[in-house]
């Protein structure tokens, strides 16, 4: 009887472990808690770390290098409009609060924001948004020295000379947590259940709604904004006059949100939470992120290619909008590993790759390692990760899209345990 129970347990563990598939691939760079991620063009972006580390990529996240600045503290959030123009929110620690740094020459020189509140108190900035080389906004909270029990006031600052001087644009209400602009005139700020907007470049701000959630906003689309509370997401299609609150049925708190367009978006949160909508937030589907780390921020370059950053040095990437790229096409157990020639070959721009995963030993269900299928260019540089997960025995097929690559010879390599096989393919445009 005990033997039968053990066999059943093996089967359950096998199914739970092996059929789990994900379109997200993780890599670990150090042990830093990565708080935010932004891209300022289709190739280049930054990751902000809690210990002050800032990472940079110029090749769509294939490689991340340390981006050295003379920032006096950890970068909490940031915004950039080019490789040169970057703004950061810095935690100075202690009673100094959070302040801003600004550069217009790619970090060669940083301007420390001369942000001074009117009256005795401390400013804690939470978000920064850059319009161009000269104009930017920052928002946060002002705490008085007189009586901290009264709580914070929301505060907004603006610079018109590239961060050299900042003037108070608004001091009112509750703590502001995020600020976004559509253009030079039209912008919005949220926090503490309020949504405020300006239509004259921050000269005046108007309270529009008290239904807006807290946290942060997605990138806006005309008059459509998304924001989130701990578990739910709110949407407005008339610039905050009305909000619709959507329940995500997500059991973990959310930390970040990003929409590729007004209907197609992602939200991330604690314990590896990734949820996706394709109908403007009405319905949300949970995805397998292949991690249990807290995911703090998410960013997508298009519907398929996206990134998320986590605690403990983990960075996630997807080439498929979070959906698994690999499909089981035959669950008959192959007798050995094999990697087939891609078809068609040569191809333009997509091709299919088929491979077999056998069953090896009786203990394989509990010991099976990761199956990886990666693509390399002629110099040996990794250009795509097609599979990086545990797979049950069977025959699989994956589609490789070379739309973002140049014509040339590429190699694809299957690795599973001690088995390794590499084949060559040609992309001709």
Describe the structure.
The chain has 429 residues and is mainly β. It folds into 2 domains: 24-318, 7 Propeller (Methylamine Dehydrogenase, Chain H), CATH 2.130.10.10; 325-427, Immunoglobulin-like (Sandwich), CATH 2.60.40.2550. It has 2 helices and 35 strands. The protein has helices at residues 2-18, 364-367; strands spanning 24-28, 34-39, 45-49, 54-57, 65-66, 75-80, 86-91, 98-103, 111-112, 121-130, 136-144, 153-159, 167-171, 178-181, 187-191, 194-198, 206-209, 225-228, 232-236, 244-247, 254-259, 265-269, 273-277, 285-287, 295-300, 306-310, 314-318, 326-330, 338-339, 350-357, 371-376, 382-389, 394-401, 408-416, 419-427. Strands 1-27-26-25 form a 4-stranded antiparallel sheet, with no helix packed on it. The longest helix has 17 residues, at 2-18. The chain is elongated. The chain starts with a helix and ends with a strand. The model is unreliable at 1-21 and 361-368 (pLDDT under 50).
